Amino acid sequence: MPEKATIERARRDAREGKSASTQAGEFIRKEIENVRAGRHGVRNTKQAIAIGLSEARRAGVKLAPPKKGRTSAATRRKARQDARAGEHPHAVSRKRSQATTRALKREGRTGVSRAALSRQAKQAAKRRGSADRSRAAKKAAQTRAKRK
After folding, report:
1. Whether residue 148 has pLDDT greater than 80
2. By residue range, what is the domain housing residue 134?
3. What is the mean pLDDT of the chain?
4. d(CA 145, CA 64)
5. How many CB atoms lie within 10 A of CB 50?
């Protein structure tokens, strides 16, 4: 279950009219903090991001499932399942949660190092076209202007 403060920051982003991915960024940031603090580990950067996105969907952030070309059917199915769970929150299985945590504790911490995050960001940016990146930057500038 995500912390109250994380959910509140995401809700504030939603009130300010920021995109769903920006709202989900709060959960990803918290996940990276958790790994760096040693609460558990991750195999790689993508896993840390995936955990954050899953938590965001379960907390009610209206994130669309990933597009067909880039991900497996299982990932899209999990994303839809998380989104449905976010509509009607309920208690999570304690046994399953503890099993997941134990498995993650066996993983390393290097997946969220500065170098690893930088590598992941560069790879993700490379997959997007320059027009797409430009559009995203302009939108970010607009929401920043509204805030002041």
Report:
1. no
2. 4-147
3. 91
4. 26
5. 19
Torsion sign (Cα): 128, 15, 144, 53: negative
Residue type, 25: G
pLDDT of 147: 59
Burial readout 91-117 (b: 16 or more C-beta within 10 A, e: otherwise)? eeeeeeeeeeeeebeebeeebbeeebe
- Token pair for residue 49? 């991001």
CA dist 83 and 80 (Å) reads 5
* Mean pLDDT, residues 85-104: 90
- Tokens representing 4 are 């109250």
| Torsion of the alpha carbons at 34, 37, 39 and 45, rounded to the nearest 10 | 50
Structurally, how many domains does the chain consist of?
Answer: 1
pLDDT digits (tens, 9 = 90+) for 5-29: 999 999 999 999 888 999 999 999 9
